[in-house]
Amino acid sequence: MDWVSSIQKTIDYIEDNLEVELDSEMLATKVYTSSYYFQRMFAIMCDCTVGEYIRNRRLTLAGFDLVSNDSNILDIAIKYGYESNESFTRAFTRFHGVTPSAARKNQQSLNIFSRISVKSNLSGGKTIMSDFSERGYVVKETGAVYYTQDMDKTLNWFRDVLGWYGQIDAKDDNGGGVYGCVNNIPIEIEALHIAPFTGIHMFRGEPLKIMVAFMLVQGVEQLYAFVKKNGWNQITEVKTEPWGGKSCEVFTIDGSILKFFE
Question: Is the whole-model pTM more than 0.85?
Fold first, then answer.
C-alpha cells in the first residue's frame, strides 16, 4: 500500500467533511485497511492522532468563524460537532487559551493548526533522517532469517553496532521476544512501502554459527569505519574480491556472520 497517498487522501476527505461525523473506523475503510494500522500510520506520518487532527482543525476553523462573522456561538459549536455550549467552551479554551465569548469580544489572535501535507511533514523528519545518514552506507538488498536466544540483546546489538532500526513484534508470556525485525532504514519509512524490505527477520532459536546474510551495500568502506567507531572489532578488513567488488564480514553478538559486499 502507498501509505503517503492513502493518508493524504484521508486528510483531504477530513478537510471536506469537518462539519459531519468522522471516526477512524470509517476513514480506514476509505483506504481499505484496518483501523489499527490506519491509526498507527496516521500518527507516524502526521505527528498526531486522527482524533487530534480532526479536533484541532475544527477548533481552528471555529475560531475563524467566531471572529469573522456574527453567528451564534452555539450554532458554531454545533457546526463543528459539539452538543452544548459548555463542551465547546471547554475544548475551545483548552486549544486557544481564551473562552469563545472573550475571543469574540476582544477580536484577538487565536491559535492555528494548519492543514497537513503528508509529504511536507515527512520531509521535516530531520532527527530520523540525520541519524540515518550518519552511517554513510546504505543496504541495497537483503531479507535474511536470523535466530537468537535473546532478542532484546540482539536488537540492541544491531542498533548500537550497525546503526540499524528494529522492534520486537511478538513476545511469550514471560516477555521474551519470539519474533522481530531489524531494518537498514527507519521503521517509520519502511512501513510506507516506498522501498524494498532491506532488513532481517529475527526468530527465537539456536543461533547459526555460519554466514546468515549476504548483503549488497553502497559504501562498504564507510560500513567498516562505522562498525569500528562503535567499538566492535569482530569485523574483517575490507578486501577486493576476484570479481572486482569489495567485501567484509561482521561476526554478530550471537556468533553468526553477516557478509557485506559492494
Answer: no
